[in-house]
């Protein structure tokens, strides 16, 4: 039976505040893990928590792993909760996003093992092909730095815009050098991009949010990221220093097992792609 605890951002914010108050005066290792209890992993609902639930229900007991999964619907709290030790690990993000997060927030989160890729896609309720977008069409893109850059690179890879040479993971619409359709860009929170589809001509949506909204990336996307040499694989992550926790190493091994690979391939049919 599915037994995943769901926490809202508001609840976690209050929890984090309480933890912050109780941590006053503690040593610098306050975020280190107590390996005697269950491993609590923060995850986005789809597909991350679903994959973890499969591990918990089918594989963890035999491996001697006590696993608890907590779902989060934002891209911030899983890292802050991992940093302060209220969860032991998280599974929701890619390397460019983590690098940007650590740099801006002073956190110390590190990857453990890469599990899967969720191809970013362009979707529309108004056109069936990307080249059918009209002049002046509005395209919603995620408003966080890394995912916005990723969205723009997807559009550039499919000939809708041209970006400056060498632009990296901080690309913004200001870095567009050619825009033959005079596309307009609406920046929205990543989780809201599927909901924006009724208000814009198209939206670039992260794979997990597309699946949660009932979209099938492999079928419904007008254009979709290629998995070849893709730097955006999603991984299990912990606070630095906790990589060798025996529960973490057990989970890393299970997440890259043949059983999990088959589960991902069977359940997501190309909308989520194993990275191992």
UniProtKB/TrEMBL annotation:
What span is annotated as the signal peptide, if there is one? 1-23
Q: Does the keyword Protease apply?
A: no
Q: Where in the cell is it found?
A: Membrane
Q: How does it sit in the membrane?
A: Lipid-anchor
Q: Which UniProt keywords apply?
A: Lipoprotein, Membrane, Palmitate, Signal
Tell me which Gene3D superfamilies the record gives: Periplasmic binding protein-like II
Name the Pfam families for this protein: Lipoprotein_9
| Presence of keyword rRNA processing | no
Name the family: Belongs to the nlpA lipoprotein family.
Protein name per Swiss-Prot or TrEMBL = Lipoprotein
Species name: Streptomyces lavenduligriseus
């Amino acid at each position: 039976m599915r037994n995943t605890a769901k926490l809202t951002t508001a609840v976690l914010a209050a929890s984090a505040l309480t933890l912050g108050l109780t941590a006053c005066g503690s040593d610098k290792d306050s975020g280190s893990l107590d390996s005697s209890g269950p491993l609590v992993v923060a995850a986005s609902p789809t597909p991350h928590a679903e994959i973890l639930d499969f591990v918990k229900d089918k594989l963890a007991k035999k491996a001697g792993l006590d696993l608890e999964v907590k779902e989060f619907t934002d891209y911030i709290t899983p890292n802050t909760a991992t940093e302060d030790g209220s969860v032991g690990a998280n599974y929701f993000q890619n390397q460019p996003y983590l690098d940007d997060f650590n740099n801006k927030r002073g956190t110390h989160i590190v990857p453990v093992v890469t599990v899967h890729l969720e191809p970013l896609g362009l979707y529309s309720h108004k056109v069936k092909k990307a080249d059918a977008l009209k002049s002046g069409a509005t395209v919603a893109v995620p408003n966080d730095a890394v995912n916005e850059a990723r969205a723009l690179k997807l559009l550039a890879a499919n000939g809708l815009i041209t970006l400056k040479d060498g632009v990296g993971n901080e690309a913004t619409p200001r870095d567009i050098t050619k825009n033959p359709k005079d596309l307009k860009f609406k920046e929205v929170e990543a989780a809201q991009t599927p909901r924006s589809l009724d208000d814009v001509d198209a939206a670039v949506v992260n794979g997990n949010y597309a699946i949660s909204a009932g979209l099938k990336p492999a079928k419904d996307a007008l254009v979709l990221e290629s998995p070849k040499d893709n730097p955006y694989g999603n991984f299990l992550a912990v606070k630095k220093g906790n990589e060798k926790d025996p529960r973490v190493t057990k989970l890393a091994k299970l997440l890259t097992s043949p059983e999990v690979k088959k589960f991902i391939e069977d359940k997501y049919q190309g909308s989520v792609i194993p990275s191992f």
